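Risk register update: the risk of archive-format incompatibility is retired. Evidence:
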Amino acid sequence: MKVTKQVQMPDQTKTDSERVSELFKSHADYLFNFAITRVNDTHIAEDLVQDTFMAALRNIKNFESRSKESTWLTAILKNKIIDYYRKKVRQYHKESIDDLRSVEDYFDEDGKWNKSDRPQKWHINYNENIEQKEFYDILNNCLNRLNELQRIAFTMKHFDDIKSEDICKELKITSSNYWVIIHRAKLQLRKCMEVKWVNN
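Archived output:
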């Protein structure tokens, strides 16, 4: 999906505006796709991209061509996404566990998988483009079923390769809480994928 919002450029920075307009034409779609995979909301993704170009406009004079334009813009967008995550986590005061199983519920008293919860072997041909697209569509659907804190932590860890200690710092959670959140997210994602993908 293409970003349709255009950045409103101040008249007094016409030269800078023209430069950022060119950046918009070249990179808006890529940045939107980057954002939508991390926030799963079209309107929020568009707002984040617009904020990115507004920040680029304010800082275009400081941009050095030694780095790629896409790298510079993506770095700005990543910071905008992190800010969005922080706000969401602040709103998410307490993780709801009403519809979550405890991590221990997946294992027996000896620490082995319960028979019904034991991971199944997935027979997936990742080289088939159609199958690959379907896989990622289902993965995104399953990600959306996680609670907000789980989805954000999982995305930061496995989409953006952010270090665990940095995630804890950004989200203001303890390392033990982080481990439980990520572990629950993985268990739920696998269970969801097995129901919607492997068993279909």
